[in-house]
Amino acid sequence: MSLAKQAEYDRNDPFPVEVLSQLSSKFACYEEAIQNPRKDVIFLTKTFQSEFHQKALRLREDFCGTAAISREFIRSDFERFAVGVDIDSRAVAWCVQHGLSSLHSGSDRLELVVADCREYQDAKFYDIISANNYSLFLLTSRMDLVQYLRRVKQCLDPSHGMFICDLTGGSDCFIKRKVKRQCGNLAYIWEQDNYNFVDASWQCALSFLLRDGSLLKHCFKYTWRLWTMAEVMDALYEVGFSKVRIWFSDLDEAEELVYEETTNIPGWVKSWNAIIVAV
After folding, report:
1. Within a domain: residue 132?
2. 43, 128 Cβ separation under 8 angstroms
3. What is the chain's Cα-based Rg?
4. How many Å apart are CA 133 and CA 178, to the nearest integer?
5. What is the C-alpha separation between 117 and 80, in angstroms, rounded?
6. What's this model's pTM, rounded to 2 decimal places?
7. Are residues 165 and 204 in the same domain?
8. How is residue 251 annotated by DSSP?
9. Residue 277 and which of 7, 49, 209, 212 are 20 to 30 A apart at CA?
10. What local confidence, expressed as pLDDT, does residue 230 receive?
11. Structural contact between residues 202 and 173, judged by C-beta atoms closer than 8 angstroms
């Protein structure tokens, strides 16, 4: 059973203003402190170009939240079209109320859908489907992971389709810790509460400390499945992808994420991020 009705978001029937005002700070903070959609779009379009020697024109951003990557994708080229899919209607509503205003033009090339990404499937073929911000960790069973990736494969253009996602890992994931990092006018606080080796569940929370001293405490809380790189790669090959490439960044070595393509992430790296590209 779907966790949300599959439907295009109705821009003429937004959330009440008082509800959005309560949510506005956390979504705005997330975009400012956590996301870098311009960098993401440059990476995914350049990688697509290097694989297929043509321009990527059709993107589906799964688990899109406020659809920051989709907005940047259509902003980057007037020929581009994007679909953002997310189960959280509040995040989609925030995008409609606040995010689309930054486009100035081109919002007609962005379609927003409120749906469960595990079950969503449409009639379009896409050049790229993305699942960023550790979204695969929301899929807590292998059956869900494989089912989702199989649907992704079916929705990619058979001649030039590319899937992209990101993971994190390293020995620091298994310990209780708190990380605070300044990002412009605010700081984010990342807290890891518990990792369970029995079911690989991982409990984390994200807070934001604003410049005026106010704290948005635990405004994002997660109970994830911490998939390993090998598990995700096995699932990708199982559903029919023929090639998987990995880019890696050592979080202990640099303040800013700097990725290099690799076939090896050493076990001694305490904390890392990785981008996976499958074709």
Report:
1. yes
2. no
3. 18
4. 19
5. 22
6. 0.90
7. no
8. T
9. 7
10. 97
11. yes
